[in-house]
Structures are given as C-alpha cells and as structure tokens.
Amino acid sequence: METLETLSSRIETTEEVGSIVHTMKAVSAVSIRQYDQAVLALKDYHRTIELGLQVVLRDERTEIRPEREKEGRTAAIVFGSDRGLCGGFNRSVVDLAAGEFGRATKGAEAPLIVAVGARAAARLESVGLPPTEVFFLPGSVAGLTRTAQSILIQADRWREEEGVATIRIFANHRTAHVQAEPAARTLVPISTSYMIGLAKRPWPTRQLPTFTMAPGQLLSWLIRQHLFVTVYHIGARSLASEHASRLASMQAAERNIAERLDELTAAYRRTRQDAITTELMDIVAGAEAMREKEAAATFV
C-alpha cells in the first residue's frame, strides 16, 4: 500500500500537469481564433487579386493558353506540425501524401518534398518519403507571411532548377465533424478552366478598369499574389486545425486528469483514515494493556 507521503506527492504532480494542460488549452483556443481571423482578413485581398486578374484576362492582348500535360518532376508541400499532443494530425496528412505519391512515383523519379513542420518531416521519413527541405512553422500569425514567401521561393527554385511541372499541397483543415481533415490541391500549374472562368465572370460595375502596365507583366505579378494567397490560406487553416486538434486532446487529457485526481484523493483519504484507525487502535490497545496491568497489581 502506498504511503500518505507518496500519494500526496502524486496528487501534487497530477495537479501540476493539470495546470500545464489548462494553459495549453488556453493557448490553443486563442491561436485558433487568431488564425481564423487571418483567413477571414485574407478574403478581401484575395477578392482584389481576382478582380485584377479579371481585368487583365478580359483584355484582348492577354492570351489564355490551353492547359496541357507537362512532363517533369512532381513536388509536394506537406503542412504538419512542429509540436505534438495533437492526436493523429500529422499521420493523416502524411498518409494522404504517401498514398498519392507512392502510386505516382512507382518506377519513376522520387518527388521533391517540402515538409512544413518537424513532426511532419519525421513522419514522412518513416513512410519512405524523406523531405528535401524542412520549414519550421511560425509561432504566430505574423510569421505566416514569411513562411508562405519561403515556400514560393522554393517552388520557383524547383521549377527553374529541377524541372518540376506540378506542385501539390497537402494539409489538414477543420470541418463541421472533425478537427483535422486531410486534403490535397494543385498549387501549380493553375487550372486553365479557373482562368477562363475569371475572364467570363461578370464585372461588378458598369465600367471595366484600365491598366497601363504590360499585360504579361501585370498578369505574372497577379498570379504570384494569387499563389501567395493560396499558400497563406492553406497554412492558416492548417495551423487552426492543429490547434483545434491539440485543444481536443487537451480536453480529453483534462478529463483523464480530473478522474485520476479523484482516484488519488480517494486513495489518500482511505489511507489517511486507515492510518488514523490504526493509531486509535494502538492507543486503545495500550490503554487496555495499562488498565489490565493496573488491575493485576491491585489484585496482588
């Protein structure tokens, strides 16, 4: 049986762990809110970029080339996490990437992979898809811009130096039913149907704006901004999903800690009551022995 000192120490340690879990819950809850707000704030900017693309694509000097298959290497960007305690967050998104690229690269050249998050990199390594680059995730919304820019720089390097034709992004996002749902989308090439759809979309006012830059130069800049918005949006949603998964894990841990504290407290009370009972029994036994000794002495 454990002693009172041991039980007291275990209760104190469990309470400290509970305090840490409570703090992590608060951090995750605040982070989810920040990244959700970043996604909402990005919508207006994305809308502005699409309006600019509309203007350029509707210009008679702009040529929309039909989409065609390009031969070249395939690259992947996998968003995961740097920290753990978020359930199967990294496993689900890496398994999705491994399922796609395991089939796509069978007997062909292995894909180039950027892992965004140390945990995702370790998981990719374990399934036989070692990343060529590892980017660490930002600790706040402010750092997400730099991360998105670094990913686009790497994408440019792939296309220029490695002959990459297709870049796929894998990341988790939240849905109404789950905290982390893995999904994939193509970053480049941009779908021709999307560009044609923008060109045919009705303009919201009566007057179409004009521009003075060369159409090709302006189109290139707008596409670059479109890619930045896409990466930023996916990264923000992935980080919100990570913190939501961690929040769910911490809530489960908090319930387990509460149950464990109840068990330890009950065990402490039982042990303490047993100790008190034993002490009382010793006192009663001692008193009885003294009374018997006194009675024997009187009889003599």
Protein architecture, described:
Strand 1, helix 2 (89-104) and strand 2 form a beta-alpha-beta unit. The two termini are 45 Å apart. The protein has 6 helices and 5 strands, in the order αβαβαβαββαα. It has a single domain, classed as 3-Layer(aba) Sandwich (Pyruvate Kinase, Chain: A, domain 1), CATH 3.40.1380.10. Helix 2 packs across helix 3 and helix 4 crosses helix 6 (215-299). The protein has a 5-stranded mixed beta sheet, with helices on both faces. By secondary structure, it is of the alpha/beta class.
Please give the CATH class. Answer: Alpha Beta
* Strand element count: 5
- Main beta-sheet strand count, sense and barrel state: 5 strands, mixed
What strand order characterises the main sheet? 3-2-1-4-5
Calculate Rg over CA atoms.
32 Å
Total discrete domains = 1
Distance between the termini: 45 Å
Q: Helical percent range?
A: 55-70%
Q: By helix and strand content, what is the structural category?
A: alpha/beta
Short description:
This protein is an alpha/beta fold.
SSE layout and pairings?
Blueprint: H1 4-57, E1 73-79, H2 89-104, E2 112-116, H3 118-126, E3 133-135, H4 144-162, E4 164-173, E5 181-188, H5 192-200, H6 215-299
Parallel strand pairs: 1-2, 1-4, 2-3
Antiparallel strand pairs: 4-5
List keywords for this structure.
300 residues; alpha/beta; Pyruvate Kinase, Chain: A, domain 1; 5-stranded mixed beta sheet; 6 helices; 5 strands; 64% helix; 11% strand
